[in-house]
UniProtKB/TrEMBL annotation:
Binding site for (S)-2,3,4,5-tetrahydrodipicolinate: 132, 141-142
Chain sites annotated for binding NADP(+): 29
Domain of life (superkingdom): Bacteria
Function of the protein: Catalyzes the conversion of 4-hydroxy-tetrahydrodipicolinate (HTPA) to tetrahydrodipicolinate.
E.C. numbers: 1.17.1.8
Domain Dihydrodipicolinate reductase C-terminal: 102-230
Alphabetized GO MF terms: 4-hydroxy-tetrahydrodipicolinate reductase
Lineage, uppermost ranks: Bacteria, Pseudomonadati, Bacteroidota, Flavobacteriia, Flavobacteriales
UniProt organism field: Flagellimonas algicola
Name of this protein: 4-hydroxy-tetrahydrodipicolinate reductase
Length: 233
């Protein structure tokens, strides 16, 4: 498989290493200054760039009928437009706030726990995410997906960063050292706590998931998710 990497930072470099180990070839490493992008030579584009750059990168790929795997977070106000562009150009698209197998299992666990907790009014939910100090967006994309999993399965109506309320999922974002990504969900009552937590030890799980998604999307047209790729419930 010939891969175009959009964003050649921490994730782009790790994806390159894993893709090469799996027998693939990186044909482009696109950064902010890159001109003459060889779209015609790519089987797939993998975008781990920046919140400002992601939408432009993704839609350029669709215009050239290159399928896109995007893990960039912090640009989702434009997600609907990206989906429309993908459909117009009959391309293929997977966005995931987190590509790791472990976090995708954690998403399922979170939804299951939320269903159980619905109506148990003595418990109040809250969430904490911790990432490295270079991270540009807060809360993390993963935290937003987790909050949506709670909201979709309970009477909580919205999430807020550093703000609480009766039907609010409050999210606290911490930025510390080189932490790859830690997410904790807490249900607290006056008598006890129920807590679930995912801790990434490094970035390899994210990168491997993105390469597996790129392999999976070959020959497909449409909008998919990691649930499709991993065949989760
Ligand atoms: N979904 C998932 O599983 C995961 C998602 N992420 C997300 O992926 C994104 C990237 O993370 P990470 O690699 O750690 O960040 P980095 O900052 O290490 O890398 C981002 C790279 O994108 C480059 N860039 C800037 N503008 C453009 C542009 N127009 N086109 C292409 N590249 C550009 C940056 O260059 P420069 O430094 O010169 O600006 C930088 O090299 C973030 O949004 C992060 O939240 C991260 C891990 C897992
Ligand atoms: O920026 C990161 O590093 C990460 N970003 C993603 C997010 O915002 O959820 C995924 C992972 O937690 C690492």
């Amino acid at each position: 498989m010939k891969i175009g990497l959009f964003g050649y930072g921490k994730m782009g470099k790790m994806i390159e290493q894993i893709a090469q180990d799996r027998g693939h070839t990186v044909v482009a490493r696109v950064d902010v200054d890159t001109t003459d992008i060889p779209f015609e030579n790519m089987h797939v584009a993998i975008d781990f760039s920046t919140p400002d750059a992601a939408f432009g990168n993704i839609t350029s790929c669709f215009e050239h009928k290159v399928p896109v795997i995007s893990g960039t977070t912090g640009w989702l106000d434009q997600f609907g437009q990206a989906v429309a562009q993908c459909e117009t150009h009959q391309s293929a698209f997977i966005y995931a706030s987190n590509f790791s197998l472990g976090v995708n299992v954690f998403f399922e666990l979170n939804a299951y726990l939320a269903k159980i907790m619905k109506g148990l009014d003595q418990y109040k939910v809250s969430m904490e995410e911790i990432h490295h100090t270079q991270k540009l967006d807060a809360p993390s994309g993963t935290a937003i997906t987790l909050a949506e999993g709670i909201i979709g399965n309970t009477n909580y109506a919205d999430w807020k960063l550093d703000e609480d309320g009766e039907h609010i999922v409050p999210i606290t974002s911490k930025r510390e050292g080189k932490v790859p990504g830690t997410h904790t969900i807490l249900y607290k009552s006056p008598v006890d706590d129920i807590e679930i937590k995912h801790t990434a030890h490094n970035r390899e799980g994210f990168a491997l998931g993105a390469v597996i998604a790129a392999e999976w999307i070959q020959g497909k047209t449409g909008i998919f998710s990691m649930k499709d790729v991993l065949n989760l419930t």
